[in-house]
Amino acid sequence: MSSITRTIQIRASFSKRGRAEAAVAAVVEAGISPSSVDLEHGVPPETRGREGRFVWRVLVAIVLWSIAGAVPGAAFGWLLAETIGPKGTAGLVVQVVCWTIVGHLVAGMLAGYALLADRSAEEMPPDRPVSLLTVRNVPEGDVQRVRRLLKATGPLDIRIDHA
């Protein structure tokens, strides 16, 4: 009976050349063969994955805040219908529906603008090229150990590819 071995490849990108070289030294010192380690400098950053996660996070926040904003809008519409009118069921429905829409739109727009205007964290990768470290043929038992070693050196991103 033959056992199937899987090839595992770990990729880490670094914004600073020194951090990438420190990661190579840490991985080789941990017992990974130097022939399995590749380091490239000046590689264009992979932007699609990080941009997609950022856009998804903004979209979810906008939808949730829109739903949350509809509730106070409906309550305000009910309050207006009860106090200043118009009286009757039709007046109540018109006020509640109109103010629900207003609350929904205002809350969603404010949430979207707040997230897009926040510059406290780097959401997108740098425009400048990065250093890309690739560790090939990592045994399955060593994957988490190598990942921890790489994470300790401060990468922008770590990807584990199972072949």
What is this entry, summarized?
The protein is rod-shaped. The protein contains 4 helices and 4 strands.
Question: Going across the major beta sheet, what is the strand order?
Answer: 2-3-1-4
- Here the CATH topology of the largest domain equals Alpha-Beta Plaits
Helical content class:
40-55%
Strand % is 15-25%
Distance between the terminal alpha carbons, to the nearest Å? 21 Å
Written account of the structure:
It is a single chain. By secondary structure, the chain is of the alpha+beta class. It has two domains: 8-46 and 128-162, Alpha-Beta Plaits (2-Layer Sandwich); 48-117, no CATH class. It contains four helices and four strands; from the N terminus they run βαβααβαβ. It has helices spanning 17-29, 48-83, 89-117, 143-151, and strands spanning 8-14, 37-43, 130-135, 157-162. Strands 2-3-1-4 form a four-stranded antiparallel β-sheet, covered by helices on one side. Helix 2 packs antiparallel against helix 3 (89-117). The longest helix has 36 residues, at 48-83.
